[in-house]
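ok trying again, last paste got cut off:
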Amino acid sequence: MKTVTAKDIANSLGVSQATVSMVLNNKPGISDARKKEIIEKVNELCCGHMLKKTNPVLKNLGFVVYKRQGDIIDESPFFAYIIEGVTIQAAKKGYQLVMVHINKDMPQKEQEELLLSNACGGLIVFATEMYEDDLAVFKQLNLPYVLLDNYFIHENINTVCIDNSRGITKAVKYLVDAGHKEIGYLQSKVSINSFQERIHMFYNVMNDYTLPVQDKHVFKIGYSEQQAYHDMKNLLLGGAELPTALLADNDWLAFCAMRALRKHGVRIPEDISLIGFDDRPICLYSEPRLTTISVPKDLFGIQAIDLLIDCIESPGKQTITILLGVELIERESVLRIAK
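nice, full thing came through this time. structure:
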């Protein structure tokens, strides 16, 4: 008896062999009606063995929240935006999301067990707080994974992150075009890779404009609301000399510093201009409203899920880093200085 092939099934239905192959291998992209037609023909020909059974492992995707210190993630509104987008995009692709919380202090064996306990076919890692040494546990798993909001230049890892360099370049240019020459930086005492990249780029861009960055104009403050406010207040009480403009690691620091500055009698933007980064909702409630760098929060989920599913379905491909573009949002916290 002749063995029935995918080509035979395709010819009998008047469809392409590729279409039949996708149904046999349980791949997405074929309409339900066409899929039903092909499966019925397969069963009619007593070829049910050709159908690849749905692998339940591949229907779960893990969303890993990795906490190193927790300060940044706990204060970040990105989590809500990102998890919504990731969940919706995963569902569109036929996958469900499983939440996994990993703490740096956990023994690596415990981290591995947690990551494997939900039978996930791949992982989206919310990596805002991660450092390079935190990758060890993921390298041991033999599971595809995509990092969100962080990347490591020396590692071959699929990543979706913000174009920090472009954001800082846009912010400095905006201030220079507004006539500012004394530009300082508001830096978090809690360090993450994104913040390091932003301040490093700040020095580079200022150098491109041949504008010196004075040490006295780089202010380090805590990250929690109370600590950030009090650190800025103490700097002002200690006689800190202010530049005409400050660029902050993110909106949260700018907002907390703004409160302290106003309490100290410093007018914004008349006495000092401020620019944040991220475009959080808090920007609209500050007084004045905060000029900032906006990131496309809705794209994180779409890009991350699509990239992860591609890794699952086509393993062995070259890794990809996706940089999400940014835009400057002009509000009322920057004063234009007469040149």
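cool. The radius of gyration is 26 Å. The chain has a mean pLDDT of 89.
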